[in-house]
Amino acid sequence: MRDSETKSYVVGFEIGKPLTNTQIAKVIKSNNSQFNEGDTVIGFLPFQEYIALSGDELSGIRLLQNPLGIEDIRHFLGALGMPGLTAYSSLYEIGKPQKGETIFVSAASGAVGQIVGQLAKHEGLTVIGSVGSDEKLEFITKDLGYDAGFNYKTEKPSDALNRLAPEGIDIYYENVGGEHLQAALDSMKDHGRIVVCGLIAGYNLPREEHFPLRNYSYILTKRLTMRGFVVGDKGMGDKYRQEHQERVSQWIKDGTFKASTWECEGIENGIDGILALFHGYNFGKAPLNYLGNSTDLPRAKIGKVMMVYGNKSNAIYERAISTHEEHSRRLGYPLFVLRIPILQSYWNKYAILLSVLLQELAKPVDQRLEWLYWCDSDTVVMNPNMPLETFLPPSDMSNIHLLLTNDWNGINNGVFPIRVHPWSVELVSAALAYPATNPEKDLFWNDQSALSNTLKEASYFSQSVMYCPLRWFNAYMRSPNGEGLNPDSPEHYQVHPGDLLVHFPGTPHDVLEERLEPYLAIAEAHRQEWELSLEDTGYMEETVGFWKRNRRADDHPYSTSTSSVQSTLSATLQHVKPPRRFTGLTLRCLSGGVCRADYCYSIIFLCDIPATMASFIRPSGAMLGQMTRLSAPQSKTTPFAMALVRQTQMKNAPSSQITSFHSSAKRDILNPLPQVIQGTMNDPAPIPHSSPSHGSYHWTFERLIAASLVPLTIAPFAAGTLNPVMDSILATSLVLHSHIGFQALIVDYLPEKRVPKTRAFFVWGLRAATLTVAVGLYEFETNDVGITEALKRIWTA
Ligand SMILES: NC(=O)c1ccc[n+]([C@@H]2O[C@H](COP(=O)([O-])OP(=O)(O)OC[C@H]3O[C@@H](n4cnc5c(N)ncnc54)[C@H](OP(=O)(O)O)[C@@H]3O)[C@@H](O)[C@H]2O)c1
């Protein structure tokens, strides 16, 4: 980004002054005859929520004309605004498209690119686009009607153009520069045209780091026309403005033209929104919605699904659900709650999940949720500031569709994120159909066992599951009053301050209120020590480390450095709206004084980010650092920064690191033991009683015995004496040592819950064997030569 002093075709940002751009605003008070209260106006204005204009300043705004009644007025900042006019004027003036020709558009899903591509389709051209993610690729080819496209982060532009346009291209619409331009020059046909609209790949680089273009001689040899322009140039925007407005608004109205908007909500997130453009996180035109309360809310990427129904009193569940509502309200996650059962009892869980999955998949890709979090209604959100994006896999691990947690009983399906994907529909359908298709199987935990079996029985399903630490999104209760840890339960299962939620799996209904009450009280009091910001929880580092360790060879076919967390980040950026803090309406106005809303002439509620930031005004990196709090990736800041940290760290992650413990990557040598489930569906997992003889004393004793064997074995030989007492101690230690060793094998590999009879058989077998050996050794020591002497004789024989 350049310094404001560096010359360019537009004035740079100045530190301490508000940024400016095209904005749409509502007049809230006026004593000017041209503008009435309630009018919607558009104009080039500073980024601020309220502004008072008078005299000449009023010439910068005009009434927004919307003769066709286009519902989404954000189009007047995008397709019908400056980016649309940029695309329109330059394509016709410089590109001169002819039916049957081939055009290549870079940054094809961006505000300008998506208009160029659609205009070219209207003119009968073959359109090829380049984008920075698979999601964008799907968008341009499926929704915008591009004939073909590629993700330049996974395929080199030159390879892609050779593949997609072997005959060459007639027009290159340049938004990016660098490698794209080099590839396009290689592919240009004779007399082709290159419309140089933007060169975003080089905007933030010092001159010496710019891409070294080596094939510009083609401009001559292929007799190319290559022309840069600015939309405000005479003979560009002004020449085409009316035609552009008429044609494009008609196409938008009749639905033959699509224009996606990627809205950044809240003026406090504006800088994050600007930075997002340079990382490609935006999805089309990126307006900033100052107030964040427009009816056109930004597209959510994660939804939550819950259910509560039945005849029993649901008051406690409703209170628990209200903590989820608070979480959803703060961070903008749509919440689906089933209150009328669809199927029988537990199976409603998969029924509603399936219905929401299908509902989402039926939408165009750019309007869908990407993940759903299932949450049982006996879960209480303890930290409504915790973004759900935190726990999702990086975008390039796109083969992971389900995240599960395990407790000592196996999987627990009380809370889990599942990707909106056909795979998920298949899995949930298979689990739902499991009792019908496997009537002989005993599903002790009903839906949970059905899911568990479905995963076990089909690698198609199990290979797309990742098992995450339980505390991340499915933590269990700590002490009954929630204040301290429960010493009898493993700490890593217990909810800690800052954790997302606490789950009370299977707590019987009659004690549910008693168990949940203390936790609900903490949640409802919004206690500070529980409602930590993400960066204070340690989860940023933990999740980055986890995904880095658990990256499998097949997760990362192309190993690009920047794509790894983009969808997480883009989701975060789009959805994570910090808790809204209304502090009154006293704001700085243009006159430099302080005004209250009542005295202002207009209230600004939408503004156009991209032109300013992407092309016109580019502050230096240092300046940006000052402005954004994000200059240092490790700085504590918003989820945006979190994602940047992730991105930086992911960059360094070896692409083919294979997990050693990840269960979806493991290879079972023997068939797993049968699952035998005790209790009823979602019964609380019994916490084993702690006993010193099973814990530390046991281990200390065993270590002592193992350690004592070394001197006991060496001493008699070293000393040359054969002491019967020492010999007896050695024999006893040997018997104890082997007994403990075999006992550990039985405990580990033959769990009582799963194979109680086999285990009992082996336990008694071991006891009998130990007794036999002990008696034998006693005989050997008392009536024969003893161990040491026997060894000595064997050695010297
Ligand atoms: N000449 C003019 O009058 C005029 C007017 C308006 C805009 N412009 C220029 O036109 C271009 C497009 O503007 P826009 O409003 O449509 O921007 P935009 O799409 O809203 O945002 C920029 C897009 O460029 C892509 N990008 C960012 N960094 C990149 C990189 N290093 N390499 C490749 N692609 C990168 C990203 O998409 P991916 O995820 O697909 O990479 C990003 O979403 C910009 O260069 C802008 O400066 C010029």
Automatic annotation (TrEMBL):
Q: Start and end of every Enoyl reductase (ER) domain?
A: 2-288
Q: Which residues bind heme b?
A: 737
User: What are the record's GO terms for cellular component?
Assistant: membrane protein complex; mitochondrial inner membrane
Membrane topology, record value: Multi-pass membrane protein
Q: Name one GO molecular function term.
A: oxidoreductase activity, acting on the CH-CH group of donors, NAD or NADP as acceptor
The UniProt entry, under InterPro entries, shows:
ADH-like_C, ADH_N_2, CybS, ER, Glyco_trans_34, GroES-like_sf, MDR_fam, NAD(P)-bd_dom_sf
Subcellular location(s) of the protein = Mitochondrion inner membrane
Which keywords does UniProt give here? Glycosyltransferase, Iron, Membrane, Metal-binding, Mitochondrion, Mitochondrion inner membrane, Oxidoreductase, Transferase, Transit peptide, Transmembrane, Transmembrane helix
Q: Mind telling me which CDD domains this protein's record contains? A: PGDH, SQR_TypeC_CybS
Listed binding positions for a ubiquinone are 749
Q: Which family does it belong to?
A: Belongs to the glycosyltransferase 34 family.
Name this polypeptide is given: Enoyl reductase (ER) domain-containing protein
Show the taxonomic lineage. Eukaryota, Fungi, Dikarya, Ascomycota, Pezizomycotina
